[in-house]
What we know:
Layout: H1 13-28, H2 33-41, H3 46-58, H4 65-78, H5 80-96, H6 104-108, H7 111-127, H8 131-145, E1 147-149, E2 154-155, E3 160-161, E4 167-169, E5 174-175, E6 180-181, E7 186-188, E8 200-201, E9 206-207, E10 212-214, E11 218-219, E12 224-225, E13 230-231, E14 239-242, E15 247-251, H9 257-260
Parallel strand pairs: 1-4, 2-5, 3-6, 4-7, 5-8, 6-9, 7-10, 8-11, 9-12, 10-13, 12-14
Antiparallel strand pairs: 14-15
Amino acid sequence: MTLPDSTVRAVDFVWDQAMREARDAIAGEPLLGGLIHSCILHHGSLEQALAYRFAQKLASSEMSAQLLREVSDTAYLDDPELGQAARADVVAVYERDPACHRFLQPLLFFKGFQAIQAYRVGNWLWRQGRVDLAYFVQMRVSEVFGVDIHPNARVGRGIMIDHAHSIVIGETAVVGDNVSMLHSVTLGGTGKEDDDRHPKISDGVLIGAGAKVLGNISIGHCSRIAAGSVVLEAVPPMKTVAGVPAKIVGEAGCAQPSIMMDQLIGIRTPDA
């Protein structure tokens, strides 16, 4: 199955820019020509490229790339939101990660971006009632990328996961739009309860490296969670929390913490 070139083709700044960058990259490093052609230039749309990348990265002796490509092609064709969310994710990584200088980088090299796109296909499978195949995708994403997102979790668009190692997002977790998180973040439960047991992260939240947010608690929009914090209670909007257990230590410091990516907590010094 192939996806039509007309998918979001009227105006597609993200894909057009990635294609230009791909051609420039080959000119600068011909040894990557095969990779870039097969992953980018060979395809007529971002959806086709993402479906190919999904299949190639997650294929194993247990499931061939051909079968996974058929699954991912069907997912992108059935649900246009997958491609739109991916475009928002590309822009989010480009705007927020100082190590990202081209749209091409997340598509080829950044496991946080690729893990999120693979999760989106797994979530589509879950919503189709294909639960066991969704679990297979979750397993392979964890094995390949070191990112474990339950396929029933709900994740918005414009997501940036920097470095992405050891990310865990539980079954009933909700992550809003324009959220940024760093490596080793856990959105987990607090025990063996079998109901709605995971955090609800609102839009625009910044979660620092190693932070653990546990239980069915809400994290208000545009708040900041400092690195290494353990959050066990709800956080109001536009606040900064830090510590073990985390406490409110001040305001968020800006209107859009997840975009500004400012992780420093101001320390007030006593007057001399």
